[in-house]
Design a protein that fits this description.
By secondary structure, the protein is an alpha+beta fold. Strands 12-13-14-11-15 form a five-stranded mixed sheet. The protein has a four-stranded mixed sheet with strand order 1-5-9-8. Helix 1 (73-88) crosses helix 4. It has three domains: 12-186, no CATH class; 196-282, Arc Repressor Mutant, subunit A; 295-343, no CATH class. It has helices at residues 73-88, 101-107, 114-129, 171-178, 196-208, 220-227, 233-245, 295-304, 310-323, 331-343; strands at residues 15-17, 26-28, 48-51, 56-60, 96-99, 131-134, 144-147, 151-156, 162-168, 183-185, 216-219, 248-249, 252-259, 262-269, 281-282. It starts with 14 loop residues before the first strand and ends in a 15-residue tail after the last helix. It is globular.
Length: 358
Amino acid sequence: MVTRKPPPHDAQLDLFTAVFTDIATRDTQDTMEVPFLSLSKKPRFTPITYKSDTTEITVSGGAPFGIATIWDWDLIMWLLSQVRESLDQGENASRKIRFHPHSFLKAARRACGGVQYQRLDDAIKRLKNTTVVTTLRAKRGKTVMFSWLEYGELERDEQGRIQYATVVLPEWLFEAVSDNRLVLSLHPDYFLLTGGIERWLYRFIRKQAGSNRAGWGWYFQTLYERSGSTQRFSDFVIALREIAGKQTLLDYTLIVQEKDGREYLHAKRGVDIAASPEPEVMPHAPVPQFLHLRTATYEKAKELVPGYDVYTLEADWKEATKRNCVLVSNPDSAFLAWCRKVGARPTTIARKGSKGCG
């Protein structure tokens, strides 16, 4: 009998148990600057769509559960944080994760009563029900399709409440969290934010502004397009004004300013920005570019600029690309060209261990 070899993914997934406590909350950068989630607690059945020159996204979720919300995403962030922590400690991790609801609820700073157990139950269903179709982080000419949870299994007690849950993350998310450069940590009080737009805005600012010294600015229309909100634009602006009126959003200071007769939101990390220099304001929705390099490119870069920290150079290159709104069709060639320019400078200073933005 002649048989073919099984595909690489045919093997049974190992079971990973979520056990870490008091760890940093991580999120994937890819999901922080483009619309992937519903910002409303009311069920959303209308698809979320976003399109730029380089990225297309469609997020859908039919009845009865609808599209996953930004509150449902708390579970995904916690699961990703468990995986990342395991990898940071040199241990094995898996897309298949088993956890006790109490562990998640405690980490997400929620009560542990029956209502929260039911909300977790509903969140798992919406995450499983939500389908994403996107070209983001896909190889050129390809489209990827997945659900936020590939599989879910709930063990219940006699009252029907979840005792244990086993879920499987999609490969798209697991690949992102496995690369430390594609992950950002969030403020420990993020879970205490109650508003959908407020939560979205913090994640967007965290990704876009990071620790940029001058801060960053976005016109209200840009923020509206990036949020995927179903609100009217005028209502969205009112919500932004209310958030900015508090002056701070966790570790960011916010202020509404004006340029060329148009108002924009200015955000800067950790300080009063009233007297700060005017930041660069994006006149249109900035094109998200997810510039990933091959392993061989890093090795070539080390040869071109010996003594430099290539990961710091990569961070500087990405920042310059974003700041100058440069569209990159071949990230590997573009980065190596950047390295050649750095190496050709008359005075070169090795910057081992220096930190990039964000």
